[in-house]
Amino acid sequence: MDPVDVLSHAELPADLFAAKDAWLSPAEYFRLWHGLEASSNGRNVAVLLGKSISVETFDPPIYASFCSANFNVALRRLAEYKRLIGPLVADVSVGSQETAVTLTCYGYDRLPPPSFAITEAVFLTQLARMATRSAIRPLSCELVTLPGHQAECEAFLGCSIRQGSTNTIRFSAEDAARPFLSENLAMRSFFEPGLRARLATLDGEASISERVRAVLLDMLPSGASSIDEVAKRLVMSTRSLQRRLTQSNLNYRDVLSDLRRELASHYLHHSDLSPAEISYLLGFDDPNSFLRSFKEWTGQTPGRFRSESRDVNEDEVRNVQGHRSKTSF
To answer: What radius of gyration, in Å, describes the C-alpha atoms of the chain?
Structure first.
């Protein structure tokens, strides 16, 4: 793909890749993904990128993970450094039977491009194969949005892809513990001080509301949402967190409420989750509390909001199809 063409479709500066210390906002990051899709000429972006992966293309966070002892260690290291790669949170769960990786986005209230999550699954699988020199196949792959070229993606992964409420890929415990032939303690140690410094810089540059929202995204499904717990995860006192929010003309309750409202709207518009299930994912004590809050936010019940949002979406699809039929010749 032509980088200039990708950036043009993404409405990003043509010299972005040549700029020193360039960075993207979350919205720009996902515009770049849309640019990749628009420039692919119908090709499978995920598999195209997966087959192009090589050690020479790895940036420091990925190379440090590649030098780990095994896949479990690499995944934990990737989770730690993921924020240096994009507005992403990777939750790694290591169990006796399997290792699961769940990916979520922050700072972006729309559904990511279809190629995004499947590319992450392809990348993790290819990383494990390269490092172990083994034909590792995931146990399963669950995605919020099913990809185009699904059969080709399933053939690459070696497992079926199903639609679900999260972007989660699972590997067997045996494969996740398989030694990395690429383990290199010296190289990993060489990269890590610089990576930790970059994380510290990122934390310093990120707004306090962005940091609170990122932590809450991870906490809410477990039912935790207190300011004390957020402060603990941000490694600061509750009083310091309150002071920093006040300095930004914010208060904790408003940040929590705004995030819950955005997530609720997203789930109702893009999933078939019931209000009770959404209530659980948003960390409410009971579904009735969620129903009352949603009515305060929107003046509607969740059911009516879902119905109206889908009616609007169907109208947009018909308009696009009508436009295509007029311009196809």
So the answer is: 21
Q: How far apart are CA 268 and CA 282, in angstroms?
A: 12
List alpha helices for the chain, DSSP H: 3-9, 26-38, 45-52, 60-66, 71-81, 114-132, 150-157, 173-176, 185-205, 208-219, 227-233, 238-247, 252-270, 275-281, 287-298, 302-327
- 100 CB burial (10 A radius; 0-12, 13-18, 19+): buried
Distance of CA 273 to the CA centre of its chain: 19
What does the alpha-carbon distance between residue 19 and residue 186 come to, in Å, rounded to a whole number?
30
pLDDT band for 13, please (50, 70, 90 cuts). confident
The string of pLDDT tens digits covering residues 152-165 is 999 999 999 999 99
Q: Which residue has the higher pLDDT, 317 or 24?
A: 24
pLDDT tens per residue across span 124-138: 999 999 999 999 999
pLDDT tier, 326 (very low <50, low <70, confident <90, very high otherwise): very low
Angle at 261 between CA 259 and CA 263, to 5 degrees: 70
CB 165 within 8 A of CB 271: yes
Specify whether the CB–CB gap between 71 and 132 falls below 8 A: yes
Question: Do 89 and 82 form a contact (C-beta atoms < 8 A)?
Answer: yes
User: What whole-number distance in Å separates Cα of residue 67 and Cα of residue 190?
Assistant: 11
Look at 81 and 260; give whichever has higher pLDDT: 260
| Degrees to nearest 5, angle at CA 15 with 11 and 18 | 135
Q: Is there a contact between 41 and 143 (Cβ–Cβ < 8 Å)?
A: no
| Token duo for residue 116 | 């995004």
State the sign of the Cα–Cα–Cα–Cα dihedral 66, 28, 144, 213. positive
Q: At what angle do helices 45-52 and 150-157 cross, to 10 degrees?
A: 30
Q: pTM for the complete prediction? A: 0.61
Per-residue model confidence (pLDDT) at position 320? 38
Please give the Cα distance from 101 to 21 (Å, whole number).
Answer: 29
